[in-house]
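Entry 12.
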Amino acid sequence: MSQSRYAPIGMPAIRATAAVIPAQPVPRHANGSTWSSGDSRRDDARSEVRLTPELVVTQAVYRVFGADHPDRVRAVLDYHGLNSRPADRLAMLAARHGVSVRTMTGRIQHLRAELAGVELHPRIVADATRPSTPGEDHLSRVRIATTLHVPAPAAARPAAPTVPAVSPSHLAAGRAAIRLLATVGPLDIDTVFAAIGRCRRFRVRDPLTARDLVAALDCLGATRGNDLLWQAPSGAEAPSRYRSIARAAAGRDLTRQQMIDVLIAAGYTPSSASGRMSSSHPLFERTRHDSYRMIGSPAARSCHLTKRTAVA
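Predicted 3D structure (tokens):
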């Protein structure tokens, strides 16, 4: 693997057969005696920080692209689900980072070429190839395994329904997302997350991340297809107000006043429509000054590419 002259703090070099990160030299006093912190167990734990497949890929990304290209580092980590978001469609990632799908593909293939022939410790291989468990980001684990040139893990087996550890406020956000999906049809997670983020009542409570929203959608029975678009569970119905908005606003560019009129016609009070709802209704997104459009419309989706590549 080519080595960059830059190495991020806390990211030691990947060694071909490393099982753990090498321990630092033991400090010694001037007289040559060994220094001890007084807690040997804590010292042993610090000296054996175990490598994981995720850490191996993270180290490789930093060493291949270096500190001169933080934008490439963020994009490639995001592709592997290692940048605080779940792994997403390649086209969505390219749009998020302002590059073409071809550029994104080239960077990923570059990383994989650098890792070709690297001998991994059997424990790391076993961790990367074990079957995914419920709640894990399976797409992220598949991409990590592919980058490390090991067999892809199997998907998690369907488990018996259990009570998930999802907070009530996150479940409320998931229910709001399902109402959106039932109204406008399948959407990608970024669009759903942005729409829920516009609802003021979700901003001031338990903070919501994209992973939290995915967990809530999974819990409530929403599904994600092969195109990674989320769909409402069977039997989910759109509220009557949402249906009225969809009939009046789908595919149209509206001014703020026109949007307020649509909200009033759907049953919202004039004070609510011209106040909180005019800026926070999840069905509408602002496209430019005094211009609004309902999410899920063809124009709103035009920036989301659907081209599939070998890397995706």
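Annotation: The mean pLDDT is 79. Residues 1-30+47-159 form one domain.
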